# Entry
Amino acid sequence: VRVDTAFLWMLGRNDARAALPEMEECTPVQESITYLDNYFQYWPYWGGLFKLHLLGGDVQAAEEIARQKFSADKWYGPYVASYLHCAKGECPQAEASSSQILVWGPAAENIELLYFLARCQLGQGRLDEAAQSLRRLQALHDHLTLGTPYYPKSLLLLGEVYEQKGEARLAAQSYERLLDLWRGGDADLPDLMTARARLAKLAVAARQG
# Structure
């Protein structure tokens, strides 16, 4: 529950300072979350903390968790390597290390990795690859029975990609999908505010164009 709450703070409110204390509430029981004794909670907890540090920009803290808690020969090994490459802006290495797991890995985990990969690709100006990663993420999401906060994040990011590609109509559609998805959400959610502002800017540009 703490992990889920932390991700809602990080992905819903873009607030790393509020997210990490939620994880720290689990400190008293961390020693019991071992690969042998708590297999089904191991990756959700330690992998969750690892990804929260990456989302918050603390690559060093994430690398320390990876060094202490993760083994390259476990199923999550390629994920850890790929996430770290993404966070460091090493897109080709991330694409190489994730190529196989994005075929056979679980959809829920691949959605998260594709978001990290798209952010990396966008940051490197690889717009076509970023768009492809985000569309692949959204296709995986369509087959899930439960939602994921990475889906609405992908709509905002895809809109940004399309804007940079000069495809204003597709960018507007992506922002509109986010606004429709979160039409009942808090008005001050950062991503909603960003989507509204970008959509308004596109509308002004269209009228002036």
Remarks:
- The chain has a mean pLDDT of 91.
- The CA atoms of residues 70 and 77 lie 7 Å apart.
- The two ends are 49 Å apart (CA to CA).
